[in-house]
Every structure is written in C-alpha cells, then in structure tokens.
Amino acid sequence: MSLVGWRVTSGEAQAPILKLDEPISFWGGIGDNGEIIDVHHPQHGAVVTGRILVMRSGRGSSSGTYVLAELLRLGLAPAAIILTEPDGIIATGALVGAELYDVYMPIATVSEADYELIEDGVEISIVMRGDEAVITSIA
Amino acid sequence: MLEGDHGPAIALSMRIITELGRIRGAQDLVDIESVHIDGCIFYGQAGLDFAQRLVQLGGQVRVPTTVNVGSVDLIHPSLILQNTDKEKWVAQGGRELMQAYVDLGCRQTWTCAPYQMDSRPDEGSHIAWAESNAIVFANSVLGARTDRYGDFVDIAAAITGKAPRGGLHVNANRHGDVVLDCTSLSQAALQTDVTYPLLGYLAGAIAGTSNPVLVGLPSDVSEDALKAVGAAAASSGGVALFHVVGRTPEAATLAEALGPNVNAPVHHITAQRLNAARQELSTAREERLDAVSLGTPHASVDEIAQAHAATAGGPPMAEGVAFYISTGRSVFAEAKTRGHVAALEEWGVTFVLDTCTYVTSILRPGTRTVMTNSGKWAHYAPGNMGVDVVLATLEECVNSATTGIVTWDRELFA
C-alpha cells in the first residue's frame, strides 16, 4: 500500500496502525497512560502509545489539546495520527507539543477511499513532502 | 510577527495561529477586539509549561483579555479540598497557572460569564473567546463573532491580537440550519425557569454542531434564560450559535435567521419532550438531598436576587444540606452592595468565587445527590464528580433544601 494524503502537522514516523471503529475524544477518552478509558468505546482498553492512530475524525472537548500535549511530554503519545478531515483540537495539541518538548508528531488527512485501504495492525511509514503526506506499508 | 521582530512570545503565538489557519483553510487572519481565556483551568503540567514559557519569553496580551474560572477559589482557598495527593497537585498547579495568566496581562475576572461584566463586545465585532458557554452567548445574544477557540489558541490569539478568518467569523456560516418550533408550549411553561436549560439540552441534542433557530419564545425572554439555553446546548451538543426569532440580533424574522437555508428541518418541541428531557438528565434515585448547586454558568445579580427572594421569610435550611452559588467577583461585589449576599450567607449559602463546583473538588466527600437549576451542571457532574443530580426549578431547589428531601414535579409540563 502506498498513498498520498495532506500534511496537517510536520514529522515522520514508522509504527503499526491502531485503527479505531469510532472516533475518540482525547479529553475523557484517553488516560494519562495512553490507554483508551472511554468505557463506551469499542476499543476500550487499547493503548495508543507508539501506534499510528487512525480514525475518521476528532471528537469532543477542546481540552483534548491538553491531553495530547501531556502525552507528548510524557512520551506516551501516538507515533502519528491519520484522519479524514483536519481537526483543530488534535492539531493544536501537536503544535504545542512541538513548541514545548521538541516532539514532532505527524498528523495527516487522507481521502475517504484511502481511509478504507488502511488496515489495523499493519506497520506503515509516514513522511512529509511539502504539503503532501506519503504513507507506505512496510513489507 | 512570525519572524520574531516583535519578540519571541509573539513569534511562538503567531506560529500557532497561522498553522491553525492553514489547517482550517482560512484565507487570512482577522484582527480581534477581545479574548476570553479558558486555558487557566489546571489539567496537567503541559498547560502550565505553555503559560510559563510565554511568561519567560516576555509575552503580554495585546487586546483586553478576560479569564475563565480557574481550579482554585483565590478568595476562599479553604473551600478547595486538599485531602488526596491529586487534590493537592491540582490546588498547587492551579494556583501557579492562574498566576501565569495574570503575569501575561489578563484581567483577573475568573468567570465563565465575562458577558456579565462592564465591558461587552459590540454586535458585529470580531473576538476570540474560549469556553463553550461564553462562545455561544457572545455569538447568539450579543451578535459578536467568535469561532470555537480552546486551550492554547486562546492565549496565542490574545498575544497576537489575531485569529484565523474562518468558522463563525464568516457571515455565510452564521445562518440557522435547523428549526425548533416551541409554539405549542404554554405561557406557564415559557415563564418557568427550568424550561430554558431543557430547551438548550434538546437544541444541542438535535443540532449537534449546527446552528439551531428557536421559534415561539417570548420577545422579552431574559438574558439569564438565553444563557441557560446556550450553556446546555453547548454541553449536550457542540452549539456555538443559536437564534431566537424576535429576540436575538441576527433573527428579527425566521427568514433572516435562516438566510438561504429555507428548507431547514423543523422539530416540534412539546411539553412531553420537556418532561422526558428532564427525566433523562435527572439521575438521582435517593430521597436524601446532600447539596444544591446554582450558578453554572456563573450567577448574575438578578439570579442571586431571585435566590434571595426565594429564601427570604421561609423556613431555614435543613441540617446536612450544603447550598452553593458560584459567581464571579464583580457580580458578587454588586450583589453584596444590594444586600443579597449577607442574607443568603446567613440562611446558609456558600458563595464560590473564581471557580465552579463541577471543575474542582468542593463538594464534601460522601455527597451523593445534588439538585441544580443548570442543564450544564446536570450534564457534566455525574461523569466528573460521580454524583447523581436532579435538574430543578429554583423553587424546587430551595424547598428541597429546607426539608432535606429531594422533591420535584415529574409532570411539571403536563
């Protein structure tokens, strides 16, 4: 698999995918240990740390920026995030993490069709080329 | 500004504003006239690191900037419980965070209702406000223009005086797109205080993040009622702008409110739906009342006067009940001058300033059942604090406080 998305924030990563069945709110949805704590979420108990988190969109309170910045500070954040639409809350968390802690977590958006091609558990790499995000599976 | 010729704090803030503008597809930036900050509630080290970095870099706000509640009542610090390690951490971090925002030049307002203060934004002016109830009030009731801002972006906007020109800054995004027809509600229902948080709760559930238009409310419906609508709609949904036909600035008529969205879906709000919404929000199963919490969003002078009137000359508060009213410093000072504060305190009310009973540890350990007149409090408290609630009229709250027994009319809107 190789596809091209759009760069939301800069950075590069290589890690296995954690693809969520439903969007998660960082605020109230992900604990400070990187675990999904929303008991109503189908992947409750999964850990986002070090994974390329793939979900259709962001969700929930603007205080989610705090949670993501805190995960970046603690080294417990996802390796990258892929969405189908840009999300200001998630992007702000990453921008602040980069400013404060020099941790550059890439965020990309992909088309709905490409989103369907991304499979849970597969290891991929993501690199930015200008405003393009190049996403490739590792054979 | 980006190049750093205005100093490193402005350059850092400008990087965040311009990147956010690029991400949101904004064509340019808009000059803003005021900012309301929500980043002053302590959730962890990253928030404190960011504010203190801006202080170290010499950051100062360029436009008048108010601050939301913090995690500490600076006037009555002993109200904040410090029994557990987490409570101690929040109290200490919360105090340092509030100080950092003061150092950045913010006015020490510590209120979620900056629109109840002396200076309010003009109709049509561009502002960058955070905190969902403040955003929806500014857009809907004042006719000012703010998009949904949150932590970190709020202070970056204050330091640069700029925000991305997108979202609700743009006229085309301000029309209503779903109608709530309230014309079947009785005059009695429309004169009942708890009707308005319930209307907001339904509006948020129906509209999600779009712009609901309410039809059939009195043309003189009070700002306090509209405040309750907005706060609840921004809790059950993500509403940042609503219109009330014949009352709010961009809704002289239904046609004006809808603009091109003439085929917006219409939902009929009935007495049965109000009753059902109240039962959905009221989770309490116990008879014994532990506490009453009013003032979410922060109580206005009128609301404090109404609480005074409801308690004056009546029976005393029952033993074992705590009765909180959260409000801002400026409203508190005015209510004090008018004699409401002393009378309510004598009756047993605890005033909470600078913060709110659902964002920090104030309720006594063991508190299980709380009555409130706030849809927002009723929505968040069960999850945040692990308490059960009843959403009630002011009269029901006061009467239950005097008996210590939770009492409410399940068929209020029958």
Features:
heterodimer, A: 139 residues, alpha/beta, Glucose Oxidase, domain 1, 27% strand, B: alpha/beta, Aconitase, domain 3, four-stranded parallel β-sheet, 15 helices
Structural class of chain A: alpha/beta
Query: Largest sheet of chain A, order of strands side by side?
Result: 1-5-4-3-2-6-7
Per DSSP, the total helix count of chain B is 15
Roughly how many Å apart are the termini of chain A? 9 Å
What does this 3D model show about the protein?
The complex is a heterodimer of chains A (139) and B (414). The longest helix of chain A is centred in the C-terminal third of the chain and has 14 residues, at 88-101. Chain A has 4 helices and 7 strands, in the order ββαβαβαβαββ. Helix content of chain A is 25%, strand content 27%. Chain A has a single domain (2-137), classed as Glucose Oxidase, domain 1 (3-Layer(bba) Sandwich). Chain A is of the alpha/beta class and 139 residues long. A 7-stranded mixed beta barrel of chain A has the order 1-5-4-3-2-6-7. In chain A, strand 4 (80-83), helix 3 (88-101) and strand 5 form a beta-alpha-beta unit. Chain B is 39% helix and 12% strand. Chain B is of the alpha/beta class and 414 residues long. Chain B has 3 domains: 8-171, 2-Layer Sandwich (Aconitase, domain 3), CATH 3.30.499; 175-279, no CATH class; 282-403, Aconitase, domain 3 (2-Layer Sandwich). Chain B has helices at 8-24, 45-56, 85-103, 132-140, 153-160, 187-190, 195-207, 223-236, 254-258, 271-281, 301-311, 329-337, 340-347, 375-385, 394-403; strands at residues 29-31, 35-37, 65-67, 128-129, 162-164, 178-181, 212-215, 243-244, 266-268, 291-294, 322-327, 349-353, 369-372, 388-391. Chain B has 15 helices and 14 strands. Chain B starts with 7 loop residues before the first helix and ends in an 11-residue tail after the last helix. Chain B is globular and about 65 Å long. In chain B, 53% of the residues are buried. In chain B, the strands form 4 sheets. Chain B has a 5-stranded parallel beta sheet with strand order 12-11-10-13-14, sandwiched between helices. In chain B, strands 8-7-6-9 form a 4-stranded parallel beta sheet.
